[in-house]
Amino acid sequence: MPITPEHALAVYREADCLATEAQVNEALARIARRIREELADRNPVVLVVLTGALVPAGCLLPLLDFPLELDYIHATRYAGATAGGELYWIAHPRTPMTGRAVLIIDDILDEGPTLAAIIEHCRAEGATDVLSAVLVEKVHERKNGLKADFVGLEVEDRYVFGYGMDYKGYWRNAPGIFAVKDN
């Protein structure tokens, strides 16, 4: 259900800040160091998962000072909702992955079916190694063993937004990671 800008503003004003902009930037720098150690000499294909990973990828990519090819993939379970449903594929990457290392950049690892499906897609396309980097990972037991290779921040199991993650279509631009009040 769409919300008004006024409602979105009220949610932001009442939200709990889980990570400041400085803390997010520190987490991104930490992820970048680990990615450089792992992939700097492997000519990876980097896939940005739209729309949520647009902001974290935009901050992370300039920190990856090595040759890479950039592409995107768009698959979602949310489509503006606050709870995930069936996976919907909007766009597949065009860059060939056969024989390549692939790094998937996503905003959040919650339960993991979207990321798991993207990883499987990359393997089916011939990637030799598929790694994942997420800005935020929720701490709970519903992931069925899926772990991201590079994690910026762990947060409690609440509805979060900011730095690419949205609240009903709003606040992807919020300067930090916020949790909806009483959630």
Structural category is alpha/beta
For the largest beta-sheet, the strand count, sense and barrel status come to: 6 strands, mixed
Rg from Cα: 16 Å
Give the overall pLDDT as a whole number.
93
- The CATH topology label is Rossmann fold
Determine the fraction of residues in helical runs and give it as a percent range.
25-40%
Distance between the termini: 18 Å
Number of domains: 1
Number of helices: 4
The 3D shape can be described as globular
Which CATH class applies here? Alpha Beta
- The stretches of 5 or more residues where confidence is low (pLDDT under 50) are none
Order of helices and strands: HEHEHEEEHEEEE
Strand tally: 9
* Spatial sequence of strands, sheet with the most strands: 4-3-2-5-6-7
* CATH architect. name: 3-Layer(aba) Sandwich
Beta-strand share of residues: 25-35%
Structure description:
This protein has 183 residues and is of the alpha/beta class. The chain has a single domain (5-179), classed as Rossmann fold. It has helices at 5-14, 21-39, 54-60, 113-124; strands spanning 16-20, 45-50, 69-76, 88-91, 101-109, 129-138, 150-155, 160-161, 176-179. The strands form two sheets. The chain has a six-stranded mixed sheet. A three-stranded antiparallel sheet has the order 1-9-8. Strand 2 (45-50), helix 3 and strand 3 (69-76) form a beta-alpha-beta unit. The relative contact order is 0.23. The mean pLDDT is 93.
